[in-house]
Amino acid sequence: MFSKKGKLIVFSAPSGSGKTTLVRHLLAQDIPFGFSVSATSRLPRGAEQDGVDYYFLSEVEFREKIAQNAFLEYEEVYSGTFYGTLRSEVERLWAAGKHVLFDIDVVGGLNIKKQFPKECLALFVQPPSIEELEKRLRGRETDSEEIIQQRLAKATEELAYASQFDRVIVNDDLETAQQEVRKAIEQFLES
User: Fold this and answer.
1) Considering the entire predicted model, what is its pTM?
2) Is 180 within the bounds of a domain?
3) Does 3 reside within a domain?
């Protein structure tokens, strides 16, 4: 059972929208935030580290944790590729007296909002356009052409969920987006 101490701030967006950049900016602020490290069955990209960027599990390990009800939420985002939030992560951060920041997919974000409607602020980070999103994904130089095309197709689906979030932040200018996010979160934490 969760001891509801802190609040939950969910960031969801299509891959490449800038949600991770916004979350990192917030973690550097003077608010007691803790980052919920998600679990995934995909392989690490670039310099990603287990336990820092994600908990990297095999597909078998991920399915075992599903069977053990170890996830607050999870989704098979692509065939055989799971992402999820371990209950133990939220418990750990709340026990440390922190508000929990999530950087998770759209369906996962809405699932957390549904479970904690009053304790959760769900923010959708929207790219200025699909063309700009494609440019950002290619600029990363971490994914194959096939993966980029999968991400672009998924982005079109995910954009349809934006209206279900508490706030939509269009990330066309990073500094403006950072200010909008900070203001929305401060208002939420004071409520």
Assistant:
1) 0.85
2) yes
3) no
